[in-house]
Amino acid sequence: MIALLLALGSSLAYGCADFLGGLGARRAHVLRTVMVAAPASLAVELLLWPVLGASFTTGALLWGAASGVASAAAFALLYRTLAIGPMNVLSPVTALVSAALPVGVGLCQGERLTPAGLIGLPLALVAVVLVSAGHGARSARVSRTALLLALGAGAAIALQLVCLHQAPADSGVAPLIMGRAVSSAVTLAAAGMLRRGLGAQRPAYVVSAAAGALDSVANLLFLLAARSGDLTVVAVTTALYPAGTVLLARGVLAERIHRGQLVGLGTAAVAVGLLALA
Fold first, then answer.
1. If pLDDT is split at 50, 70 and 90, which confidence band does 75 have?
2. Residue 43 reports pLDDT greater than 60
3. Cys staple from 85: which of 125, 146, 227, 233, with CB 3.0 to 4.6 Å?
4. How far apart are CA 31 and CA 95, in angstroms?
5. How far apart are CA 184 and CA 176, in angstroms?
6. What is the CA radius of gyration of the chain?
7. Residue 278 has what pLDDT?
8. What's the pLDDT at 146?
9. Residue 240: CB partners within 8 Å, gap ≥ 6?
10. Are 15 and 243 in contact (CB under 8 A)?
């Protein structure tokens, strides 16, 4: 139950971070937004160091660095996908892959589910797809390149989560600090190389920094959840993060929640209840 609650908190924080990051990217180039969000995210994790501790062992450094590389790859693939294809179709693909691959890893490592979990897990995967799918998803056409990029983005997100799960349980926040340092370095280097194409607009500093801070909180809650529960349940629950984004878009921007998304929210509630019983 503790792991499930932590995973729900991680999902909510990821959803809020995505919402704020999206708002920031509307004002300036997305890399300008990340140039603010990444240092803010790293600062939060450094502040957590004295509170939660950090053991910079070889395992923590290696798995943390791997998660950082995966995070940077996920960012590049996801936003390239946004640029060339309809995200209302590709977002469910990305979210589903990011949930399904860690489930496979968990099952291969010997994790087992109760009957309630065996029902709740596929329901949660269905909810991920329904909640993240936008209006008109059925009629939109997707190129093979865009689909492959979406699959790659989902795999990269999944790899980031699996790497964090594999880090030593007694390493504290060391994997998060290492991962964020690596992903920030890669992202800032990319921004430096592409600086001429970033435009002159200033980023929304407060919104972008808040997105980065929430992303760090989400990573921390996922790490704690994965250390106290099964990766299969934690990963799928965390992948419900589009629900938070959808609800915030409704409350703040008055965006319409479509019928399929409402069904997805209801399905997610049922799935979480079943996973709690598991």
1. confident
2. yes
3. 146
4. 22
5. 12
6. 18
7. 60
8. 74
9. 8, 11, 124, 127, 128, 131, 268, 272
10. yes
List beta partners, residue 172.
54
Residue pLDDT, tens place only, 211-230: 889 989 999 999 999 998 88
CA separation for the pair 134, 131 (Å, rounded):
8
**Exposed, middle or buried, 92 (CB in 10 Å: 0-12/13-18/19+)?**
buried
Other beta carbons within 10 angstroms of residue 151's beta carbon come to 17
Residue 268 burial (CB count, 10 A): 22
Specify the amino acid at residue 256.
R
User: Cα separations (Å) of 39 from 36, 76, 77, 129?
Assistant: 6, 18, 21, 31
- Contact assessment for residue 17 and residue 218, using Cβ atoms and an 8 Å cutoff: yes
Give 93-131 pLDDT, tens digit per residue: 777 888 888 888 888 888 887 788 788 888 888 887 787
Which burial class, exposed, middle or buried, applies to 1 when counting CB atoms under 10 A from its CB (0-12, 13-18, 19+)? exposed
pLDDT classification of 45: cutoffs 50, 70, 90: very high
| Residue 260 CB partners (closer than 8 Å, separation 6+) | 130, 133, 137
Question: What is the four-CA torsion angle of 24, 30, 35, 40, rounded to 10 degrees?
Answer: 40
Contact indicator for 153, 94 with CB cutoff of 8 Å: yes
pTM for the model = 0.83
For residue 172, the SS3 value is strand
